[in-house]
Amino acid sequence: MGIAENISAIKATLLDGVRLIAVSKFHPAEAIAEAYEAGQRDFGESRVQELSAKAPVLPDDIHWHFIGHLQTNKVRQLIPHVDTIQSVDSLRLLRLIDSEAVRVGRTVNVMIQVHVAQEETKFGFAPDELLTSLTPEVVEPMHNIIITGIMGMASNTDDDERVEADFEALRRVWQQLKEGVMASNEAFRELSMGMSHDYHLAMRHGATMVRIGTDIFGERQY
């Protein structure tokens, strides 16, 4: 099947209210254009240089989601192009994104990355760390960012019980933030979790966004 057929097949499996983020990293602009023609508007990239190169040559109404580890020295380059930064993994980065968005006169959606997986290589806040450090004193001075939710990934394992436990841990953090520091923020409603191999499990635990690459575009072209 081609890209358009793959998107159609995946969308047929999504629960109501779940948004598909097509992970286009390492795939050429032509493949993204093909997905765009099929109606896809949300795309995920993990390298600032790659996103910055693709955005100007593709339609303006694409919503670019940055999903990789964001180095502070790349924020300025990213801000003009991105709709949502899903991978905010420190308060320093959160503040820097806000100040850079203020500087260029843009408002940027951000999501807080939470780490629950077994792998140490993953980035993000530990659940308890996030719940204690994301306070009103941190959030209220922000001017040009909108915190729309959290993002995370499950352990890379074939053990479905472990994967579901990870997704449930993410859902609990999201719920606690919704009922706590984010209670007055109506925009805080996104739970981004689940990829090609486990998004069906993620949806069972309340995912509102799933990030799917291989099942749309095939294997990555490095």
TrEMBL record:
Q: Which Pfam families match?
A: Ala_racemase_N (PF01168)
Cofactor(s) this protein requires: pyridoxal 5'-phosphate
This chain belongs to which protein, by name? Answer: Pyridoxal phosphate homeostasis protein
Q: What does this protein do?
A: Pyridoxal 5'-phosphate (PLP)-binding protein, which is involved in PLP homeostasis.
Keyword annotations for this protein, in alphabetical order, are: Pyridoxal phosphate
Q: Which InterPro entries match?
A: Ala_racemase_N, PLP-binding_barrel, PyrdxlP_homeostasis
Kindly give the CDD domains that the UniProt entry links to this protein.
Answer: PLPDE_III_YBL036c_like
Q: Which family does the UniProt entry place this protein in?
A: Belongs to the pyridoxal phosphate-binding protein YggS/PROSC family.
User: Which residues in this protein are found as N6-(pyridoxal phosphate)lysine?
Assistant: K25
- What top-level branch of life does the organism fall under? Bacteria
- Keyword field contains Cell membrane: no
Q: Which NCBIfam families match?
A: YggS family pyridoxal phosphate-dependent enzyme
Provide the GO MF annotations for this entry.
pyridoxal phosphate binding
